[in-house]
Specification:
Helix content is 36%, strand content 18%. The protein is of the alpha/beta class.
C-alpha cells in the first residue's frame, strides 16, 4: 500500500511525492546521501554504533512544509546513529498507512502546523499500538496543544527552531525503548481470554492455573492480566500481593510502554508474571483504548498473554476479544449458566474468529440434572473441555494459594491437557499408585 496518495483534507493537499532518504553518519564521516523511492522497504545499510545505540534508528520525518521539514532534517543531520526518511506530505488515510509507519520506523516525527487537526489524528493512529516512538514539532508553544499531543500518544513535543541537542536527547530516549520495539516488530504474543458465563463460573481459577501451566510447559515468557475490574481476585488465587495493579497501567496509558509495564509486574514462583486487580476497592471503569494499549504493549513483551475477563461484556469491544488466539468460555451444567452461554455464543461467536472453546467446569457425569444432548444443544456445540468437580483440590488452592497445576489432581491433569493443545506438547501423565477409576467425561 502506498504511503502517499492524492487527497485534499482541510487546507492542505496530501499529494503523491518523492521520499528522500538520508543516512545520518557518525561525526567522523562525510555525509552520504541515498535516495530511495520505496519507504516501506528501505532499511539501514549497516549498523551504526554510537551513543544512541548499537543499530541505526530509522526516523520517518513527515512535513508538507518544505521549510519546516528542511529545518528538522538539518537538526537530525547533526545527530549520530539514525537514518532519516523524509515525506513531503501527510499520508492519505490513517488505517493501514499508520500501521505501516509504526511497523517500519522506530521514530515518526510529525510536523503539526500545516494541518494540526489531521496531524493529531495521524499521531494517534501511529501511536495506538505503541510500536514506534511518535514525536511532534511546531512553532506553537500553546500548553493546550501540548496536552492534546500527549493525549494523542506523542512522546516528545519539539518547538521550532529546533536545537540539535534537544533533538538528540529525544532520540536517545527513543533508543532506550528499542529492545521492546524491535521484539514487538518480530511477532506479537499469543492472547488467551477466559470469560465466565456468569460470576462464580470458575473463570479466574482456570485462568490462573492455565497461565501457570503455560508458563512452565512452554518455557516462554507468560503474563496473566486480571481485567475483571475492579474486584478481580486472580492475584489472591496465586498468593500474590502487589503494590501496583492493572488500574495503574490503564490510568497511565499515555506513557505506557514495555519499560513502564515491567515496573508494575510481579513474578510468581512458577515463572509466571502477573498484573492483578487492585488490592482494595477502586471506583474505575476501563475504556477500550486504554485496554487495547495495555494488551498491545503486553503482547510486545510476552510470548503469551492470558487475560481473566471475568464476565465483562465491555471487553468484547477490545483487543481482548478481537485479537484473541482463543477465548475460553467457562460455564457450568446449570440452567442459568447455560442460558447465558447460549446468548454469548449467539451474539459474539457466530463466525470463525475469534476461536471459541467452551469449558464445562465442575463437571460430574453421574450427577448431571440435564441430559448431555440438552447441554450440547444449549451451547450450540459440544464443549471442548470438561473440568471435573474436585472440591478438595480447589479448597486446598484457596487456603494455601498454591496453583492446582503444581500438584496432581483430576483438575490439574485436565488443565494441562488444555495447555498441551496450545503448545503442541503432550501432557506428561502423573504416575499412579495402585488402581483408580475415572468417572469424569
Amino acid at each position: 500500500m502506498p504511503i502517499l496518495g492524492h487527497e485534499k483534507h482541510g487546507t492542505h493537499a496530501r499529494s503523491e511525492g518523492a521520499q528522500q532518504n538520508y543516512r545520518i553518519p557518525r561525526s567522523n564521516r562525510n555525509v552520504a546521501t541515498n535516495y530511495s523511492s520505496d519507504p516501506v522497504n528501505s532499511f539501514p545499510l549497516n549498523p551504526i554504533p554510537d551513543s544512541i545505540g548499537g543499530e541505526a534508528i530509522s526516523v520517518a520525518l513527515i512535513s508538507p512544509d518544505e521549510h519546516r521539514r528542511s529545518e528538522a532534517a538539518l537538526a537530525l543531520a547533526g545527530c549520530t546513529g539514525c537514518e532519516v526518511f523524509e515525506f513531503p506530505s501527510y499520508p492519505v488515510g490513517l488505517g493501514d498507512v499508520a500501521v505501516t509507519l509504526s511497523e517500519k520506523y522506530d521514530v515518526v516525527i510529525v510536523e503539526l502546523d500545516s494541518d494540526p487537526e489531521y496531524a493529531l489524528e495521524l499521531v494517534e493512529s501511529i501511536g495506538s499500538d505503541g510500536l514506534a516512538t511518535v514525536m511532534v514539532y511546531s512553532e506553537s508553544t500553546d500548553p493546550e496543544l501540548l496536552v492534546r499531543c500527549m493525549r494523542a500518544g506523542a512522546r516528545e513535543f519539539l518547538t521550532l527552531p529546533l536545537e540539535q541537542g534537544v533533538v538528540e536527547e529525544a532520540l536517545v530516549r527513543a533508543a532506550a525503548r528499542q529492545p521492546v520495539v524491535r521484539t514487538a516488530k518480530k511477532k506479537a504474543g499469543k492472547l488467551f481470554g477466559f470469560m465466565g458465563s456468569k460470576g462464580g463460573a470458575g473463570a479466574t481459577m482456570l485462568a490462573c492455573n492455565f497461565a501457570v501451566a503455560l508458563a512452565k510447559e512452554s518455557g516462554e515468557k507468560t503474563l496473566l492480566i486480571d481485567l475483571d475490574l475492579p474486584l478481580g481476585d486472580a492475584a489472591m488465587n496465586l498468593g500474590i500481593a502487589a503494590e501496583f495493579s492493572a488500574v495503574d497501567a490503564l490510568e497511565a496509558v499515555d506513557r505506557l510502554d514495555g519499560r513502564f509495564l515491567s515496573e508494575l509486574l510481579v513474578k510468581h514462583s512458577s515463572g509466571l508474571w502477573m498484573l492483578g486487580a487492585p488490592g482494595k476497592f477502586i471506583q474505575y471503569k476501563a475504556n477500550s483504548e486504554a485496554v487495547n494499549r495495555l494488551l498491545n504493549v503486553a503482547r510486545n513483551e510476552f510470548e503469551n498473554v492470558v487475560v481473566d475477563m471475568g464476565s465483562k461484556l465491555e471487553l468484547m469491544g477490545t483487543t481482548a476479544y478481537k485479537e484473541a488466539t482463543t477465548i475460553y468460555l467457562v460455564t457450568q451444567a446449570s440452567i442459568p449458566e447455560l442460558r447465558n452461554s447460549n446468548r454469548l455464543v449467539q451474539q459474539f461467536f457466530v463466525g470463525a474468529v475469534p476461536k471459541l472453546e467452551i469449558v464445562l467446569n465442575r463437571y460430574e457425569s453421574r450427577a448431571l440434572s440435564l441430559p448431555e444432548e440438552h447441554i450440547t444443544k444449549a451451547l450450540t456445540r459440544p464443549a471442548q473441555w470438561k473440568i471435573p468437580n474436585d472440591y478438595a483440590a480447589v479448597r486446598n488452592m484457596q487456603t494455601t494459594a498454591t496453583p492446582l497445576v503444581l500438584s496432581d489432581s483430576a483438575i490439574s491433569r485436565r488443565i494441562k491437557q488444555m495447555v498441551s493443545a496450545v503448545t503442541g506438547k503432550s501432557a506428561t501423565p502423573a504416575k499412579k499408585k495402585g488402581f483408580s477409576f475415572n468417572f469424569f467425561g
